[in-house]
Amino acid sequence: MAFTEKDFYAAHFSPKDYLDTYYTFSSGKEDENGFLIFYLKNLHQAFILDDIKGDTLIDIGSGPTIYQFLSACESFGEIIATDYCEQNWEEMQRWLRKEPGAFDWSPVVKYVCELEGNREKWEEKEEKVRRAIKQVLKCDVTQASPLGPVALPPADCLLSSLCLEGACKDLPTYRSALKNISSLVKPGGHLILGSVLEETYYKVGQQPFSGLYLEWASVEEALKEAGFAVKLFKETKIDLPLSETDAKAFGIVVAQKRQS
């Protein structure tokens, strides 16, 4: 399909439909939540078991979700969420402020607490995430300064999930976007990238959005070109109906920004 421009996202992306489609979580039904469970386990591995930690983490293209912060909040005292679409910031803020009608993340939170060994501490975990998210900022990865006029000290870690493949129309734009966001992390800092592979579209409600077709080799090459050394790559097959996406796999990369 034709590339979905960012102004179309701003006008037509529905956070509620997106959350209902991809993040309605059933404990014990791993087949229904395959990519999410895979990603949660690997974020737990990175932040809790492999001890990637520091003061500040910037999440690029947070969307309306908070699942990506559930392990990160144990390793970073300050989390900065970012997204291009205002409706996504508003949806996240609804959860942060505990407003009526906010998406119920508690099944996902309980699952991560179970990974950490104490399912009963899920309410404490939610509060820890709320305390850790210090700012929600506008971000455009296609710009040389993705955060616009906002100047931040380089972060210890960058996290980005399901963002670049939606925001970039082709591989040159994707490579540029990785270079753009690399300016936000300090040398020696980490990038954790979650990405769908071999996708051309996904749907939110009845609305299709384009996805940049990526294979692991092109992601790896783009990371190296942007100054990152790949430490780890894992992938899992995606088994979602074609009415939602044609993605074949989901991958997670842990990379480190080179010192020079």
TrEMBL record:
Any one Gene Ontology BP term: methylation
Any one GO molecular-function label of the UniProt entry: S-adenosylmethionine-dependent methyltransferase activity
Gene: LOC114585649
Protein's UniProt name: Nicotinamide N-methyltransferase-like
Keyword terms, alphabetized: Methyltransferase, S-adenosyl-L-methionine, Transferase
Entries under Pfam families matching the protein: NNMT_PNMT_TEMT
GO CC, alphabetical: cytosol
Domain of life: Eukaryota
SUPFAM superfamilies: S-adenosyl-L-methionine-dependent methyltransferases
Record: residues binding S-adenosyl-L-methionine: Y18, Y23, G61, S62, Y67, D83, N88, D140, V141
Record-linked PROSITE patterns: SAM_MT_NNMT_PNMT_TEMT
UniProt-listed InterPro entries: NNMT_TEMT_trans, SAM-dep_methyltransferase, SAM-dependent_MTases_sf
Gene3D superfamilies membership: Vaccinia Virus protein VP39
Family assignment from sequence similarity: Belongs to the class I-like SAM-binding methyltransferase superfamily. NNMT/PNMT/TEMT family.
